């Protein structure tokens, strides 16, 4: 008899490891899907209805699934290899880091931390409700990064901390499948789920979500949305921010990335347990569903690489200008992190406020001028050169009058007349070649991101490999470094990225294409060359003229021909 097993992976990058393990168990019918917490429960229920004999998951998701299905559920345990790999990655990121989780995670983690003398500290919780208050306390004590399971990751992100997921490797998945075979031999197949959740009565509100005392969604009726617009971390944030003793409705506004949500919360006690009802309503349509305009509340910000004196100086000037409500024109080449820095400063200095991103390459100033700014704290205005100067001047003055902080972001320098009329501060972001001290921090962050997203093996860089990265030229700065580290992570089989891997990947990416004679007349070929160099230099005419060996006046004349 073929054993039918369904694996509910709590995070997407586990899928590649599952697929790698399948050939080891040809006698099993193994299916898998991605689902975390409540979504994992839904995946498990569907798998049970389709005839699964056993279900495998991990951590909090496995605990929830056990309460929802009648077939055996195996909780995938972390191996020592998993713990060492994850802790080494976490210790590389130069952030004050804590390990938060149940005893099955923290006991092994603390032993490894002590053995390897890692700059980490472990904190144990006994219930998921303890995670949020503990993270608030850790944030107040200066911790920037929290490592743990999926619940810990999402709660950390909701409170503005960087969540780092401790991932399961191939050894853990193989062990869970072997346990499944053993358990199936001793247990009879249980009955399928006998009944569904009881339907609750609706009063006055068309869109409702009900959660139980453990913050699990037990009912939802949302005709205005295709799916629940509130994420698990937003629900957790709402649950912990509002006073538990309040009995009347409490109102809060959130964003789901495009729509602003008005959320009313009610709490009801039934017996000894407290149930929460959320009534949702979409509002402020003038900020939603417009191309080139995105409004959101940032729940967290990615780590900032600021080891170099040059970027620290720029950041201090930006902070001072932001606090004084001075409009800031950020100029920099593509990939220097202009938009990221603006978002980071907003999250740092106005974490409760709304950030409005406007791209004038996708929308016009007419739509911008019609926007309500009543709920906005900070605006990122991309490509201001696409609009008429007088329109930009009016908008800058409007933002200043309403005390809305404004970043104007472009690759090109602003006209002096614009700076004069708006009294805006003009700051030029340095390229990556001016801040090589930050390459190590950025590379380790990108390496960690690859591990989280793709399940890659490498956890750190060899010293010689890091030197090669610092000596390499990055035409598009941080964007190019991110892409290079991604290729290194995907191609490195060792736990440490070696210098030979760096040389091989750089050589492959720098291989020149086969030469073909250009088509057209001499004048047409000349124009093609000028346009190509101009594009490579991000349309900087001074550098383009230098590369071509002509002056700017000659370049300007040839462009006009």
Describe this structure in words.
By secondary structure, this protein is of the alpha/beta class. The chain folds into 6 domains: 3-78 and 171-186, 3-Layer(aba) Sandwich (Rossmann fold), CATH 3.40.50.2300; 80-167, Rossmann fold, CATH 3.40.50; 205-283, no CATH class; 293-428, Rossmann fold (3-Layer(aba) Sandwich), CATH 3.40.50.300; 434-510, Helicase, Ruva Protein, domain 3; 522-560, Arc Repressor Mutant, subunit A (Orthogonal Bundle), CATH 1.10.10. 42% of the residues lie in helices and 20% in strands. It contains 21 helices and 21 strands. The strands form 5 sheets. It has a 6-stranded mixed beta sheet with strand order 14-16-17-18-15-19, with helices on both faces. Strands 10-9-13-12-11 form a 5-stranded antiparallel beta sheet, with no helix packed on it. It has a 4-stranded parallel beta sheet with strand order 2-1-3-4, sandwiched between helices. Helix 5 links the parallel strand 5 (97-101) and strand 6 (120-124).
């Amino acid at each position: 008899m073929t054993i039918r097993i369904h694996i509910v992976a709590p995070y997407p990058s586990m899928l590649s490891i599952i697929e790698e393990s399948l050939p080891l168990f040809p006698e099993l019918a193994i299916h898998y899907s991605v689902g975390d917490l409540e979504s994992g429960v839904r995946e498990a229920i569907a798998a049970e209805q389709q005839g699964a004999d056993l279900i495998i998951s991990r951590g909090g998701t496995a605990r929830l699934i056990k309460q929802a299905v009648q077939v055996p559920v195996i909780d995938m345990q972390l191996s020592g290899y998993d713990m060492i790999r994850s802790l080494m990655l976490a210790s590389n990121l130069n952030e004050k880091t804590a390990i938060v989780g149940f005893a099955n995670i923290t006991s092994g983690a603390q032993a490894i931390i002590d053995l390897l003398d890692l700059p980490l500290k472990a904190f144990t919780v006994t219930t998921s409700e303890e995670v949020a208050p503990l993270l608030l306390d850790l944030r107040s004590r200066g911790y920037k990064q929290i490592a743990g399971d999926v619940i810990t990751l999402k709660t950390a992100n909701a409170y503005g901390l960087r969540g780092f997921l401790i991932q399961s490797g191939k050894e853990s998945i193989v062990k869970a499948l072997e346990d499944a075979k053993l358990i199936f031999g001793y247990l009879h197949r249980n009955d399928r789920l006998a009944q569904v959740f009881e339907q609750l009565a609706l009063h006055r509100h068309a869109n409702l979500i009900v959660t139980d005392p453990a913050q699990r969604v037990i009912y939802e009726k949302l005709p205005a949305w295709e799916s629940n617009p509130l994420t698990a971390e937003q629900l957790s944030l709402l649950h912990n921010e509002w006073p538990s003793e309040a009995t009347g409705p409490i109102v809060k506004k959130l964003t789901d990335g495009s729509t602003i949500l008005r959320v009313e919360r009610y709490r009801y006690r039934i017996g000894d347990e407290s149930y929460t009802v959320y009534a949702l309503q979409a509002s402020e349509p003038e900020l939603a569903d417009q191309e080139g305009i995105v409004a959101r509340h940032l729940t967290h910000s990615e780590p900032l690489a600021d080891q170099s004196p040059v970027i620290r100086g720029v950041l201090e000037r930006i902070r001072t200008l932001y606090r004084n409500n001075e409009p800031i024109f950020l100029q920099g080449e593509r990939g220097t992190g202009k938009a990221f820095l603006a978002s980071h400063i907003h999250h740092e200095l106005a974490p409760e406020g709304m950030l409005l991103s406007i791209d004038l390459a996708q929308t016009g100033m007419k739509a911008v001028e019609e926007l309500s700014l009543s709920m906005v704290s900070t605006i990122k205005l991309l490509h201001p050169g696409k609009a008429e100067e007088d329109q930009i001047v009016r908008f800058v003055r409007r933002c200043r009058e309403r005390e809305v902080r404004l970043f104007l972001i472009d690759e090109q320098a602003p006209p002096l007349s614009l700076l004069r009329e708006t009294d805006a501060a003009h700051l030029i972001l340095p390229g990556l070649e001016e801040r090589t001290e930050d390459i190590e921090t950025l590379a380790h962050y990108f390496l960690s991101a690859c591990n989280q997203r793709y399940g890659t093996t490498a956890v750190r860089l060899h010293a010689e490999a890091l030197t090669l990265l610092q000596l390499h030229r990055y035409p598009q700065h941080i964007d190019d470094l991110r892409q290079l580290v991604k290729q290194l992570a995907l191609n490195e089989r060792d736990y440490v990225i070696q210098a030979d891997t760096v040389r091989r990947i750089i050589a492959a990416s720098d291989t020149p294409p086969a030469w073909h004679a250009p088509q057209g007349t001499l004048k047409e070929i000349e124009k093609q060359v000028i346009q190509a160099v101009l594009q490579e230099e991000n349309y900087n005419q001074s550098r383009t003229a230098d590369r071509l060996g002509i002056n700017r006046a000659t370049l300007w004349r040839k462009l006009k021909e």
